[in-house]
Design a protein that fits this description.
Blueprint (H helix, E strand, L loop, with lengths): L10 E8 L5 E8 L5 E7 L6 E3 L5 E3 L2 H12 L6 H17 L4 E3 H15 L1 H11 L5 H11 L12
Parallel strand pairs: 4-6
Antiparallel strand pairs: 1-2, 2-3, 4-5
Helix pairs in contact: 1-2, 1-4, 3-4
Length: 159
């Protein structure tokens, strides 16, 4: 693993431990070249995913972008970081287990919406407002009108 500070190829692992959900290994590393310490995280990757955008562009799947989107939707909600990480891991596993290496951005968005709807309605509406590109108050009104028939999710349950 290259040092992110100086680019040295020779770094040493000082400590390894699984993450709380057991889906990754967290490694503390030390660079012999510059003396800096840094952390890496290893995850199992079943297949390389490619995202097909609405305009048919193809880009490599970026787990961090997915996690960032979910975290933004969950900002200031009573949901722990570990739970958000489990949610993101679950979405990624579903995408990888789908059997296809190409996934559409629409499929990813709908999967996130489905997950958030079951977990937290405020996060669901936040994500939907960006994903569905709400431009006016009436867009929110129509969306919230459709939601009024939904059962209220319990924050304490598992996803």
């Amino acid at each position: 693993m290259r040092c992110p500070f100086c680019g040295e190829a020779d770094t040493q692992v000082k400590d390894s431990r699984p993450t709380e959900d057991g889906g990754a290994i967290r490694r503390r590393r030390f660079c012999a070249g510059c003396g800096q310490r840094f952390t890496t995280i290893e995850r199992v990757q079943l297949r390389e995913l490619t995202v097909v955008k609405a305009d048919q562009r193809r880009v490599a799947f970026d787990r961090d972008k997915l996690a960032r989107s979910v975290r933004i939707a969950m900002r200031k909600r009573p949901i722990e970081d570990e739970r958000i990480e489990r949610i993101v891991n679950g979405i990624v596993r579903q995408l990888e287990a789908g059997g296809e290496t190409d996934v559409t951005s629409a499929d990813i968005g709908e999967l996130v919406m489905e997950t958030l709807k079951a977990l937290d309605t405020v996060a669901y509406v936040r994500f939907a407002s960006v994903y569905r590109d709400f431009r006016e108050a009436r867009d929110f009104e129509a969306f919230l009108g459709d939601m009024s028939a939904l059962p209220k999710p319990a924050l304490g349950g598992e996803e």
